[in-house]
Structure prediction request, 208 residues.
Amino acid sequence: MEIKIWTCDNYSIFKVGIERLYDIANFVVIQNYTHHTSASLPIRAKNEIEDIYKEELSFSKNSTYFIVRDKEGKLIGSIRVFKWDRHTLMPMQKIFQISPLEKVDSTEATSFWHIGRFAIDPSPRFSTVTLFKQLMALAMAPILQEEDSYMIAETDSHLLRVMNSLGIETRQIGNPQIYLASETIPVCSSKKGLTKFYQRCYHLLAAS
Prediction:
């Protein structure tokens, strides 16, 4: 399933189903190593792709996936938002051994949304910053529909600086670790911390 939800001269954004999960896992791993190391793809990358694919399958019931294709059909971007059921083991728990329930003041009514599998191929000749804003706005939309909600994520340190500079208010909730070749930081953001960014950027998804 690929449902086109936005398009322009250079690329189109699609909402996709689980049949694209392996493609997303493969794309995310390759982009991370391409961005953060000059060495060739390590042998372990194949196992990392398989691990991410299986992990995403376990999340798929409560997840929404978006991918971006250029005008030739090449995959150039991805993101996923997942509503946590408080039981499924998340990347944050696996990588950092921490739970949002221990780090965020919450009640039984608080909802937690994990944003992950974000990647953009930097080679296309268009604004990757605009594409970043579009993908983040799509992922944030269901979070902002909740009354009491938090975004949680494991974010590359460089991307985190970009997020903060663009007005996404985050709070670090654990120590950095190296994951997929880059320094990765666990963060959270309240609904309030996401709202200003969303209000400034949602218009980028207006009808094309």
